[in-house]
Design goal:
This protein is of the alpha+beta class. 35% of the residues lie in helices and 11% in strands. It has 8 helices and 4 strands. It has a 4-stranded antiparallel beta sheet. Helix 2 crosses helix 6. The longest helix is centred in the middle third of the chain and has 22 residues, at 70-91. The chain starts with 12 loop residues before the first helix and ends in a 26-residue tail after the last helix. 24% of the residues are buried.
Length: 237
């Protein structure tokens, strides 16, 4: 067992949390990327950050495949657009398409080639480390979801832009990337710098009292309704 590290920073926990919030609430999903290069060691550092995530029984049931090869990205785009065409033409019901409308998305996915990197996240259905006593894995979706979120946060802190892309079904990703059967595609994350003309829709974030409850149904500022609450929304420019 090792000693738990305690933050010795002179800044308070609130200062540090607020600083992190200020950086994260400017995050936007980007669908048009610049051709500006991102060094591989940056991607390695982001994935190492994701690897610090907690996981069921410490099985770490994730694999991050970083794709930079142009031809491979093109093949991923072609396969993804085939599935997306089926989604928009027949798989998605009317309500789903209506919810997607404000995002301005369609079956065309040029970002899969534009972004300098595609990081494809796979979840492991069994533990493939040779020194394990069993190959069982636990809470896989929860574990991989946490690691993916940490990757996205790390990219934002690094000044990079990302997009969470989940073409369905995603079996083609394992085939194109030569992954074994026990690795199942979870998400595709284009990573890079936004294009100069990149824009994102003006979406509203729920207020804190809509996403947080204290104890048995109390508002966060129930004891002092005049106290302002932190917001997930970035300040209006």
């Amino acid at each position: 067992m090792s000693q738990i590290h305690v933050n010795q920073n002179d800044r308070s926990a609130l200062d540090l949390a607020t600083s992190f919030l200020d950086q994260l609430r400017t995050r936007r999903s980007v669908r048009t990327f610049s051709d500006r290069a991102v060094p591989q060691d940056v991607i390695e550092t982001l994935i190492a950050t994701a690897g610090t995530a907690p996981s069921g029984a410490n099985k770490q049931p994730w694999r991050f495949v970083a794709v930079q090869d142009a031809e491979l990205k093109r093949r991923i785009r072609v396969a993804a657009e085939l599935e997306e065409t089926k989604l928009y033409e027949s798989r998605a019901n009317e309500a789903w398409l209506k919810d997607l409308a404000p995002l301005g998305t369609n079956s065309n996915k040029p970002f899969l080639e534009q972004a300098p990197w595609l990081v494809v996240v796979f979840k492991l259905t069994r533990d493939d480390m040779p020194d394990r006593e069993t190959d069982q894995v636990y809470y896989v979706n929860e574990s991989v979801g946490i690691a993916t979120g940490m990757f996205l946060a790390a990219a934002q802190i690094a000044g990079l832009s990302t997009l969470t892309h989940t073409p369905s079904p995603m079996k083609f990703l394992g085939e194109l990337l030569g992954r074994p059967d026990h690795e199942r595609a979870y998400m595709v994350i284009p990573v890079g710098y936004p294009a100069e003309d990149a824009k994102s829709p003006d979406l509203e974030r729920k207020s804190l009292d809509q996403i947080m409850v204290v104890d048995a149904g109390h508002r966060p500022n129930a004891n002092d309704s005049t106290r302002s609450l932190p917001s997930s929304m970035a300040p209006r420019s």
